[in-house]
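So, does this match?
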Amino acid sequence: MKNIKKLRYWKQSILTAVLFSMLLYSCGQQKDSAKLAVFDGGTVTQKEYIDHFLSSTMYKPGLMPSEKNLLDIVFQKAMEKIAVLEAQSRKMDTDSVLVSGAKKIADTNLAQKYMRAKVINRVVTDSLIKKFYNSFTPQYHMRYILRIVSDRTPATTLKAQQDTINIIYKLLRKGQKFEDLAKEYSQDMVSKSKGGDIGYVIEESLGDAKLRRVMETLPEESYSKPFRGVSGYYIFYKGETRNVSVPEFDKVRLKIWQTLYRTRRYQIEQQAKELFKKLAPLYHFKLNKSAVKQIIKKAKTGKIKMGDNILLEPGLLTNKELSLVLASCDGGKITGWDIFSDRKKAPTDKREFDKRLNLLTQQMVFAQDARKMGYDKTPEFENQEKDILDAFLRQGLYQKEVKDIVNVKVDSLREIEKDILSPHDLRLKLVEQKTKLENKYRTDFENRMKEKYHFKYIEKNFTGAVKAATKRKKEENEKRKHAKK
């Protein structure tokens, strides 16, 4: 009987605990979903406010939640959602330019995910990470002299570099200091000024297998004969050894992965090329060589860099050249715009152009294979894809409602003032006026949207939201303090 009573007691206790935890979870969910603003077609919740506040103040531990920053964040989140609704009401989500632009960004993310799974993780394996960790000590003080060559180096330059490294070796044999020769002859810009010093390293921190083999067999306090590696001709010097304390694996695992990823880049790139060759025919990949030649011919400046590398000026290209299809496959294409639209990444010579085009063609084909394999069917990616399209819709709407109008007014002002003001003063005035006009038209547009979608704050929930955000912020600050220790 006592056992039966105990069983009933434990059942009741467990049931009570479960119900209590469910109640707490329900209360937590209700608080997280508490509405801070409403509008036709959507809301802004407490969770959205807190998540945004924490992410935007990640590196500002002293900035705490307040009703002021709550108002700003909630309004910003609401306007983002309203802009998407407005864009959809205008059928902008069927605009082929916006949709294809969003798809390209999504495909880039998809290709990176695919690349990580199919290439990077097969080079930077768990066993390699563990091998690196197990050889963490001892470490060797290494120096090297490098004369750079590659697969594209012309034969005459290759011979000259080989002759130079052999001369350096003879000078070493005659007693000249390694550090002095490295400063004078090495072409490695990072270590050259330090006499070829690359610090204390272990074999696995070197990406080139040939470098690792030379380091392994080289006696301490001695230099190697010249040898050919991936980046060129080397002479290694192996200095003194030191033993270091080995940190806990979990604390250095990420840093080890990053080191291996950086030093194994050549191997990763080679495997990616092989995978691309295998997949390209399956998706009917085509490189339009005539279009490539046309763009290079139009953009070249007439100047040549070392190694017969043609210099390019993107500003010479017109819409005609930028619209040319340089490469295509099932479900995708690459145009001149994809190569040159981003000024920061726009190639300034032929080699940079080839590298950029090769990267984009790889990503295009990898994305197609990723979609075939269902990489795009995960909830995480589907949400990401939606967020990207929403961002394009917002950008397209603000371009039409704000930036296009401002650009017309600024162009008009430029015509009026160009003969009155100096170029410097005109530039300053146009920047100032553009900023003012953008702020004005953006505010006007947002006010219209507030009225159209009946935007309204739910002020009764502000106090609880600020209190909850403050608690979370303090918890985050404490976590970071402990992580630094």
User: Anything to note?
Assistant: The two ends are 55 Å apart (CA to CA). Confidence is low (pLDDT under 50) at residues 1-29.
